[in-house]
Design goal:
This protein has 184 residues and is mainly α. It is built from six helices and no strands. The protein has one domain. The chain is elongated and about 50 Å long.
């Protein structure tokens, strides 16, 4: 027996279509924000030995963004109205952490990717076999996000100034952005 997205739905719960729309909307917004974070980091760290590493991660985020942008169009999902905010906030977060040095930039990557890992894992659990292609892409993107986290850890993220505080603030911001982008 295959599981579908609407199984166990209670009155007042989002419909299966609404669940998928929220997933596509928030993931599109998140990947857009991630791309902007790397653009901000590259604006500060361009020409350094960190540039190729940041470009690699940014290119993967662009593939993720393109996938969700395609789904937005194909399924006629309304993108979040918050994209202009994420445009600015992502760049400022990336540039701001990079101005603190490569370790803070890597700490930003680790914090964001840990929040996204939790988010994508919950989406994988929520999606049924009726959304196998979307679920498969989310699983693949999640693996790449975890690769980015590992890259950050390998490049001294935990040695950033005030790492725990910086990480906690960024993760909290990501969780707020996720909740807001699902609905707005």
């Amino acid at each position: 027996m295959t599981r579908t997205i609407g199984e166990g739905r209670l009155p007042g719960d989002p419909t299966p279509r609404e669940v998928v729309e929220r997933i596509i909307r928030v993931d599109h917004a998140g990947e857009y924000g991630a791309k902007r974070i790397y653009q901000g980091q590259l604006a500060v760290l361009r020409g350094t030995r960190w540039e190729p590493l940041l470009r690699h991660m940014q290119e993967q985020e662009q593939v993720h963004l393109d996938s969700f942008a395609r789904r937005i169009a194909e399924r006629r999902v309304r993108p979040t109205a918050l994209l202009p905010l994420w445009h600015v906030a992502g760049f400022v977060l990336g540039a701001g952490t990079a101005m603190l040095g490569h370790r803070a930039a890597m700490a930003c990557t680790v914090a964001v990717e840990e929040a996204i890992d939790e988010h994508y894992a919950a989406q994988e659990r929520a999606l049924g076999e009726d959304e196998a292609a979307l679920k498969q892409d989310i699983a693949r993107f999640r693996a790449e996000e975890l690769e980015h986290r590992d890259i950050g850890l390998e490049h001294e993220a935990e040695q950033a100034p005030a790492y725990r505080l910086l990480s906690a603030v960024i993760k909290a911001g990501c969780k707020v952005a996720i909740r807001a982008s699902e609905r707005i």
